[in-house]
Amino acid sequence: MSTPYPFTAIVGQDDLRLGLLLNAVSPAVGGVLVRGEKGTAKSTAVRALAALMPEVAVVAGCRFSCDPGSPDPACPDGPHEAGGGVSRPARTVELPVGASEDRLVGALDIERALAEGVKAFEPGLLADAHRGILYVDEVNLLHDHLVDLLLDAAAMGASYVEREGVSVRHAARFLLVGTMNPEEGELRPQLLDRFGLTVEVAASRETDQRVEVVRRRLAYDDDPAAFAAKWAGEEAALRTRIVTARALLPEVRLGDGALRQIAATCAAFEVDGMRADIVMARTATALAAWAGRTDVLAEDVRQAALLALPHRRRRNPFDAPGLDEDRLDDTLEQNSGSDDDDPDPDPDGPGGGGQPPQGDGDGSPETPDGDEPGEAEPEAGEGQHAPAASGGEQAAAGAGEPFRTKTLSVPGLGEGAAGRRSRARTEHGRTTGARRPRGALTKLHLAATVQAAAPHQRARGRSGPGLVVRRDDLRQATREGREGNLVLFVVDASGSMAARQRMSAVKGAVLSLLLDAYQRRDKVGMVTFRGKDAELVLPPTSSVDAAAVRLESLPTGGRTPLSAGLLKAHDVLRVERLRDPSRRPLLVVVTDGRATGGPEPVALAARAARLHEVEGVASVVVDCESGPVRLGLAGELARELGGTAVTLDELRADSIAGLVKDVRETNRRAA
């Protein structure tokens, strides 16, 4: 076993270390989510924490780590007699992003269960993590069905494995620690709320601190054992402090004044539900115990808010996490009680019922200015060869208010990553048929299995009521669910789109589609075209935040090289098809349909569009043309792509105009 990097040798990252240590003192805090750029010691700190955790007493030979003082009466390895047991170090169990469901929750031998009536169960990672740490690196990339299982286990403190009426249950209470890089996509709100605390980490910009990081890392890599021995004294002292704080924790008093500050803070920052209040209370109590005190002070409440609230304030993936610290201080001051000075405060006294401040620091975005009718440029009437409205670059317009969009999906049946957009063959969903299993059986189709075994009962010497089942009889259920797609936006940023009012509406539409892609677990990419060429401003990624940032700063102006945009999109999709062949693309072209610049721009655009049509890429054109005279050029482009054209108004979910879910034309889908 390799020597872990010492926790006390980590340079800086005070919030990260504090968040982990508070969970070591009080596991009831609920875990910690570590957000930050790559190379900031996130994984190193989590793995180092295990060495500081106190040992746990377990029933000897129990695969589910039952406490000998109060063994689980439903333990699959039980029943156990109370008393006795052995001590072992607390475990840190890592959940790989690509783990299977059976690896996470355990596997049940269906063949033995049906033929012999025996519950042969192989425990999974949730069983291994019971009474320890479950660590998920890149937790934001975890598949949805694994996220659902984690949510269930975290909520109930137990894991259930069921296969056609045969079930196994075991305890699964663990400290959940996740790390993620926000650039690779955000976390589902349900799982985000399950993390008690969150911390943001970034590499230090101070030269001396960076030098010390490199010096210590090189020393560790040269001789891990010697480096760990050098820090053994600090590690032992920290381990002792954790044990002392744990012993002190039951004696810490959380007075009414502190509780009012907690409640007022959560109300002032408009967090959803009551979990934030409970987590803040537990965190403030742990902070007091960590400081060696038996009373919770205002400074503990403030620090608890900074750790427990930022990730609970987000209303959509484009909201920046964090708290307005001035507003936090004002709230705490207005609701300060007398707990710090008076051991018996009057709950009805002044400061006990302060109202949350209404201040102006609510983080609401300002309305973009300059959207005046007089700035809108007139529609050109010369057709597709109309000159650009402006030869120079114009300042970026702000995005309009996002709205709920109609569902755009890829036709047919895919086999891509789990998501919520298009139909696909998946491990979860409604049962549509049966087949012979390829590898281990995961979802039994009981009727098909019985039908396959029934004709052979006499030949197999069946003499009793039980059915004689063999491996060749087993049938895997085939299921249909939803997949996530690659939504590639091709956005026209030319002069014909440059009127601020129009571009603001266009950006609002794209922002709305990005929100929809986030909710449906898609990857997104963005190509823009203007002037003489097209640019891949965002390679395909799971981070819709990055797409929103690129969109907000998108400048406009120049001619309309529509063909260049379509060709760039074709190259992007070709590369992504090699990287991720199972993820089907959806091409969303946002344009008014004009094509200018270069020889025969219209013919070039048509040929580029037919490349996508020949390869069967599902496409939709968002028609941004406005004004009393409409040329219908976006509709012609959609026909060349073999897709559908929709206006900005038709894109809205509450629009009267209908929009087919499959973006391919009806006659092509029927063919």
Determine the CATH superfamily of the largest domain.
von Willebrand factor, type A domain
Structural class: alpha/beta
Report how far the terminal alpha carbons are from each other.
Answer: 60 Å
Shape: globular
Specify the biggest β-sheet.
Answer: 6 strands, mixed
Instruction: Give, in spatial order, the strands making up the sheet with the most strands.
Output: 17-16-15-18-19-20
Number of helices: 22
Any key phrases for this structure?
671 residues, alpha/beta, Rossmann fold, Helicase, Ruva Protein, domain 3, six-stranded mixed beta sheet, five-stranded parallel beta sheet, 22 helices, disordered C terminus
What does this structure look like?
This protein has 671 residues and is an alpha/beta fold. The protein has 5 domains: 7-54 and 90-201, P-loop containing nucleotide triphosphate hydrolases (Rossmann fold, 3-Layer(aba) Sandwich); 55-83, no CATH class; 251-314 and 322-334, Magnesium chelatase subunit I, C-Terminal domain (Helicase, Ruva Protein, domain 3), CATH 1.10.8; 437-474, no CATH class; 486-668, Rossmann fold, CATH 3.40.50. The protein has 22 helices and 20 strands. The strands form 6 sheets. Strands 17-16-15-18-19-20 form a 6-stranded mixed beta sheet, with helices on both faces. A 5-stranded parallel beta sheet has the order 4-7-10-1-11. The chain has a 3-stranded antiparallel beta sheet with strand order 12-14-13, with helices on one face. Helix 1 runs parallel beside helix 2, helix 11 crosses helix 12 (275-290) and helix 18 (562-579) runs parallel beside helix 19 (601-614). The protein is globular, with a radius of gyration of 30 Å. The termini are far apart. InterPro entries: AAA+_ATPase (IPR003593), BchD/ChlD_VWA (IPR041702), ChlI/MoxR_AAA_lid (IPR041628), Cob_chelat_sub_put (IPR012804), Mg-chelatase_DI-like (IPR052989), Mg_chelatse_chII-like_cat_dom (IPR000523), P-loop_NTPase (IPR027417), VWF_A (IPR002035). Belongs to the Mg-chelatase subunits D/I family. Residues 349-362 have a biased composition (Gly residues).
